[in-house]
Fold these 4 entries.
Entry 1:
Amino acid sequence: YIILSMTEGLSDLSALRYAYLNPSDMSPYENGIIALLMRYITLSLSGFGIFSLYKLLKQDFMEVPFWLKIVFDIFISLVLLVWISSEMVVWMDIYHNAQSSKLAMSILWGVFALLLISYGFWRNAKHIRLMAISLFSLTLIKLFFYDIADMSTIAKTLIFIILGILLLITSFLYNKFNGITAKDHENE
């Protein structure tokens, strides 16, 4: 259900958003506020499904291999990234700010990567930290090869300053906590 809601479901929810924002168009969907609320009902059901799966994997009678826990963590992180990215696009579209969505998406991905690194240190999960660094790398590649072409000079400066600050914070966290987690592994 979760994968279906992320693929086909987000496409249908995008059509509902379009019907909500363009009520004069002939659409097979209802044009009222229910078109927008259906998005949050779907996200709530998907969130409940993920939470149920998480609780199931944490049960004492379940002997879950370590690699499955890693796959689940990566899956959850990717689902959250897709959800918040989709949500940002929706609200940028509702407020008619679609031109700055590239800038906002890069900042959002950078902040999400910083949160993943923090969570990875808190849970002592190296795979989450590596995924966060990969997301930072992907964000920078997207910024250099896709975003820069259409941005004004002020927007370019702003995005580079914000991502630079996020990378400095990440570097600080890595230098401060990486030695602590390495010592924890040596003591075990």
Entry 2:
Amino acid sequence: FTVRPGEGFSSVNGRLASKGLISDARLFHYYAKYTDKMGSIKAGSYKIQPGQHMGEILDTLVNGVPILTSVTIPEGKNLYEVGKILEANDIVSYEDFVKEAKNQKYLQELGIDAPSLEGYLFPDTYKFAPGTPAQTVVKAMVDLFNDKTRDLNLSSTHLKPHEVVILASIVEKETGAKFERKTIAGVYLNRLKKRMRLQADPTTIYGIWENYNGNLRKKHLLEKTPYNTYKIPGLPLGPIANPSLAAIKAVLE
């Protein structure tokens, strides 16, 4: 039985009764009110055993541990792909996740000068309750990024910390082989030092992502966007994916 985030007691009570999990909605209401637990039911999915009486069910919804869904975010996925994965696992809707990942107020609080939290949604395995609010999901991913990178000196190169994340995201998209990452990072760092254009296909693709059909054409390479590194000098506007810790270290090293 799933209690939806923000769902009121009367709605939960009605659904419990309609599913035959409680025998008397009015009595359940009186009992919850008498025990002062009407406002204590927690969102999440719970296992209710056959034959449980109403007191046990209420205790489960108030004090029980929700059943969490394990979801893995692979390295190198961008925020749109992450949103699709989360929606497919009934964690949060795609639209809500993308909107929160582009929440400028939250970006300002984190001190990130970028169009979105792309690059900071750390790839890992998470456990969330179905219907978790988008803000909670996004915060968990950013918090893990901060935790994983806490011991790294993101200012150890001539790049700014945010630029390190941008370049790491490009390195991540260019190769899945760990042994190649440092070499690729070195190539791009040398191009930046020489003021050469990066000419990276993955950045160009990201710039047209929401209209991209999987086929990169010459017209795309000629289209000037803040992410087309064939047409613009230096790094793109922001990260193009969420890099692994290994890709970030490759840039720093």
Entry 3:
Amino acid sequence: MKGRLVLLHGWGADGDDLRPLGNALNARMASTLEVVSLEAPTLQAQGSGRQWYGLFPADWDAVPAAVSQLQQRLLGLQGGEAALKNTVLFGFSQGGAMAIHAGCQLPLAGVISCSGYPHPIWNPPSEHPPVLLLHGTEDAVVPFEAMEQLQEKLDSELCSTHSFRNGHTIPEETMQPIQNFIRSVLTKPL
């Protein structure tokens, strides 16, 4: 199994934020993953870091263009559209919302959203890649109910969830479910 893991950071972070997670997953999977960490296109208005679209206040009108731009970047990675069937898209927080919105419309191997949320205008296509949703039950930044809202919109046969007792983070206990999901979607027959 050789696959690609594409990482999408959260609001206010940068492309290096999730790189340790990708490297740890790659090590756990015996270096079978190419890890690509994308950086959001614009600087956030408050402080340092980057954003996929303005969030405080939320600029929902910018979401369609941001999603389209992300999809073009994914298609522009080495191997183009053909490589998407061996690609898992992982996003955290705002990156999780982007992963779900952009990824469910592409022929990816799978999509993982940790502490993500549905964009107000988002409705998934009836056929979408397998999805893993992870969320902390004590998340004060993106409430746990956001995972339930995502789950309600997705095909129940293609969506699995993992809740953890924590806040807005990616705790160590999520590594095994993430690894299991990646392994399962990358080893499915075509």
Entry 4:
Amino acid sequence: MNHADDIPTRPGKHGVFDSRKDALQLADEAWLKIQNGESGITHTVNPARGKMPARDVYVVPMNRRVGYVGGQWGNSNSLPEATYLRLVIENGNSVVSVFPVIP
């Protein structure tokens, strides 16, 4: 739940969910969109490094507000609305992280 609250002093961008209680439901919804091959999803692979395995990174359009971008960047840019989720997956189905992003 590192993305349930803003960290205004964090360098760069920090995606923050609008609702802590909805975060897991949104992650499940995004995963279903990935599994169903919905359009607009971007997929990249971060290669393995050292003991860290390769990770699949998906950016999924949620077609509605799911949070905002905070951190130092977001706070200096009026906390822009995020309508996409970024999912980082390891070993094909283990969620490493999920958080709101802007395209």
